[in-house]
C-alpha cells in the first residue's frame, strides 16, 4: 500500500483570463469543484483589481491586490487557468497578472507551480492560439504547465447554462486534465519529501 505524499487535500487556485461579469471562462472554472476528488479545493482569484504592471511599484510593498495574488499562488498546490482568446492571443488582463506574479525573476511564487491551461471561445478553435501564448508565458516564469492535449472549448456559449458548464463530454475532458494536475502535484511532493 502506498501513501500519498501530500498529507492534506490539494489546494487549487483558479484564474480566469476574463474579468467580464458573465464570463464564460469564469463559468467554466466555477463548474470544476464537483469534478475534484473529496477534500480537494479550488478557489477562484479575480484579476479585476490588479493594476497595470509598473516596475516602479514592484518592490517590497507592491499594490495590495498584487500581494494578495502572490500569496494565493504561494499557498496553492497547483493552478488552473481558463482564458478567452483576444485577437489571436492572450488577454491583456491575464498577461499583466502573470507579469506581476513572475517577480522577482526566477524566484517568483510561480516557480515550479504546476498549471493546467484551458481556453474557451465562442469560435470554432476554442482559443487554442491564446493557450500557446499562456503556456509560453508560464514557462518563462519557471512554472510547470502540464504537457498534455489542449483543452480548448469551442462554441463555449452553447455549453454554458445559468453560469455553469453543462456539456458532459467537455466536463469529462476537463476532469481528466484535473486528474493529471493532481498527479503532477503528488509527483512534485514525493520528489521533495
Structure description:
By secondary structure, the chain is an alpha/beta fold. 35% of the residues lie in helices and 17% in strands. The protein has 5 helices and 8 strands. It has helices spanning 24-30, 64-75, 92-101, 128-140, 168-192; strands at residues 11-16, 41-45, 78-83, 114-120, 144-145, 151-153, 160-161, 164-165. Strands 1, 2, 3, 4, 5 and 6 form a 6-stranded parallel β-sheet that branches. A two-stranded antiparallel sheet has the order 7-8. The protein is globular. The relative contact order is 0.18.
State the gist of this model:
The protein has 193 residues and is α/β, with parallel strands linked by helices. It has helices at residues 24-30, 64-75, 92-101, 128-140, 168-192; strands spanning 11-16, 41-45, 78-83, 114-120, 144-145, 151-153, 160-161, 164-165.
How does the SSE layout of this entry go?
Blueprint: E1 11-16, H1 24-30, E2 41-45, H2 64-75, E3 78-83, H3 92-101, E4 114-120, H4 128-140, E5 144-145, E6 151-153, E7 160-161, E8 164-165, H5 168-192
Parallel strand pairs: 1-2, 1-3, 3-4, 4-5, 4-6
Antiparallel strand pairs: 7-8
Amino acid at each position: 500500500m502506498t501513501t500519498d505524499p501530500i498529507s492534506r487535500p490539494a489546494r487549487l487556485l483558479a484564474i480566469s483570463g476574463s474579468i467580464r461579469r458573465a464570463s464564460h471562462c469564469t463559468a467554466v472554472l466555477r463548474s470544476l469543484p464537483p469534478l475534484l476528488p473529496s477534500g480537494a479545493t479550488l478557489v477562484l482569484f479575480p484579476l479585476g483589481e490588479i493594476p497595470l504592471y509598473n516596475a516602479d511599484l514592484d518592490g517590497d510593498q507592491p499594490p495590495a491586490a498584487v500581494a494578495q495574488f502572490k500569496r494565493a499562488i504561494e499557498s496553492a498546490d497547483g493552478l488552473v487557468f481558463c482564458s478567452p482568446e483576444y485577437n489571436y492571443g492572450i488577454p491583456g488582463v491575464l498577461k499583466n497578472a502573470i507579469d506581476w506574479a513572475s517577480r522577482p525573476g526566477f524566484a517568483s511564487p510561480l516557480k515550479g507551480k504546476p498549471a493546467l491551461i484551458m481556453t474557451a471561445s465562442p469560435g470554432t478553435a476554442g482559443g487554442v492560439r491564446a493557450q500557446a501564448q499562456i503556456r509560453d508565458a508560464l514557462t518563462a516564469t519557471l512554472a510547470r504547465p502540464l504537457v498534455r492535449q489542449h483543452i480548448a472549448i469551442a462554441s463555449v456559449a452553447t455549453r454554458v447554462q445559468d453560469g455553469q458548464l453543462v456539456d458532459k463530454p467537455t466536463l469529462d475532458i476537463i476532469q481528466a486534465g484535473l486528474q493529471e494536475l493532481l498527479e503532477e502535484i503528488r509527483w512534485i511532493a514525493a520528489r521533495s519529501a
